[in-house]
Amino acid sequence: LKQKNKMIANLRNALRHNSSLCHLQPCRSATAIAQTSSNILHQSKSLQDAFSTACISNTRILSSITTTNTTNRYYGVYAWGQSKNGTLPLPTVVDEEGLLIESQTPSEGDKAVAQPASKGLVLSSGSDRVQVFDTPAEMDVGKAFGAEKEIAQYICSPLSSSSAVIFNDGSCAVWGDNSNGKLGLPNQTDTKFVTTPTKFQVPTVMEDEVNSMKGNNDDNMATKEIGFRTIRLGSRFSAAVTTAGDLFTYGFGGSVLDGMGMLGHGDGESYTTPKRVESLIEDGCAVDDVAVSDLHMTVLTTEGEVLTTGSGSYGRLGNLESADQLFLEPVELLGGMNTLQVVGGHAFSLVLTDDGMIHGWGRNDKGQLGTGGGMMVDMYAMNELPTPIEGYLENNKVVKIAAGHSHAAAITESGELYTWGSNQHLEPQLMTQLLHTKCVDVKCGMDYTVILDHFGQLYSFGQGKKTGVLGQASTKSVSVATLVEGMTHRTAVSISAGMSHFACLVE
């Protein structure tokens, strides 16, 4: 990648040199002038073609980095935003044993205490320790997660202050907000906030297998450790997908008041230990990805089918029914379509199909479904069935989507970025500030957005008040996509947006 960037710089210089040749070469005749001009144009055309080829090659390299298996590569980690009780395990947050470093300067109330930029601003909020990092800070991976670990995925929860990492061996660690036992750590069910990255595991021997093994004293009965494809952390419950395509869910299972069935086990119960969704096994469904919202869950199978479960209020399940579902059921209107991606916000879901179309359903009180609707929408607005999102996206093929708490974003195949929601835009709006580059990835948090372009540079905009989550050396909000200056010296390859914290992997 560095060689490609150097090649592009050299070609730019050569083009500039060629453009001034007509002022440097004396020509004695009209024929000579014509010949010289023709040569210059020919050389410039060749250089421009080479420049374009290099840029395209560079783009493909970055695109492949963000989409291919990363387990055989070593990455550094940069993070910023609000670190509550160790949400960001940066060198100034945790010690050599991964424990929280006590503040050197006492603070009172919610008043920020001035500290060196590398330490962040220290806030106090009751018994919680909160630090704010408004500029990118490099994480000591060995110190935070163990010297022998290399990170393949860094995952922030866009709905809470929880985080997870998946290592190159498929193992996983989780930490952060553990309300409702949503981190799935059986030994810490009563711990409200897990301050240290802790190994996450799921049962390796299922109940039916245990029953068949009763009376068996073989010491080798347990299977090998399970690897993880992804993990999604929500505001009340979480889900993990193994490399074998099994889905495990845990945390809050629902209530009569809030709705029930978000874990998909058929009983509406809560579980603090990860439990495999057996109905998927019975139906022969392998899971590719999952989106975890506040009170419902959306699952994408390896066959491109979309399933939902949980609370039916505000059209969350996409099947025109307000009744809760205890089991995962297909979204009927998407039947026959091949879905490539699913994402979810607080109370809405979006899917991307292979024809480049986005379909959304659920709550639409802040324009998060991008369907328009005049100057404003009311607090009860919703779509109970999957609805195509068009507007300015019409005739544009979308290749990637993202969802935050109440807003969403999409990238087209030409690298353009569109956003909507958060009561800012009721339908997709083109981010013209990014037309000079090609976007390859986007992530949304709590009313903010971060973009990765094909050169590995980051841009951010949205609400950064008090959190510094935009990484712009300020805790103020930014209305337009702005380059994150603190990351220009590194090449980012993967990004993840949390509710008020952010992390990225860099080469």
Poorly predicted runs of 5 or more residues: 15-34, 50-71, 103-119, 122-126, 210-223
For the terminal residues, how far apart are their CA atoms? 10 Å
Inertia-based shape:
globular
Physical arrangement of strands within the biggest beta sheet = 2-3-1-31-30
Structural class: alpha+beta
The tally of helices reads 6
What does this structure look like?
This protein is of the alpha+beta class. The protein has 6 helices and 31 strands. The strands form 8 sheets. The protein has a 5-stranded antiparallel beta sheet. Helix 1 runs antiparallel to helix 3. The N and C termini lie close together (10 Å).
Essential attributes:
6 helices, 507 residues
Question: What is the strand and helix layout of this fold?
Answer:
Elements: H1 2-19, H2 21-24, H3 30-67, E1 76-84, E2 121-125, E3 128-139, H4 141-145, E4 151-156, E5 163-167, E6 172-177, E7 193-200, H5 207-212, E8 228-233, E9 237-242, E10 247-251, E11 254-255, E12 259-260, E13 271-276, H6 278-282, E14 287-292, E15 296-301, E16 306-310, E17 325-330, E18 339-344, E19 348-353, E20 358-363, E21 382-388, E22 398-403, E23 407-412, E24 417-421, E25 425-430, E26 439-444, E27 448-453, E28 458-462, E29 478-483, E30 492-497, E31 501-506
Antiparallel strand pairs: 1-3, 1-31, 2-3, 4-5, 5-6, 6-7, 8-9, 9-10, 10-13, 11-12, 14-15, 15-16, 16-17, 18-19, 19-20, 20-21, 22-23, 23-24, 24-25, 26-27, 27-28, 28-29, 30-31
Helix pairs in contact: 1-3
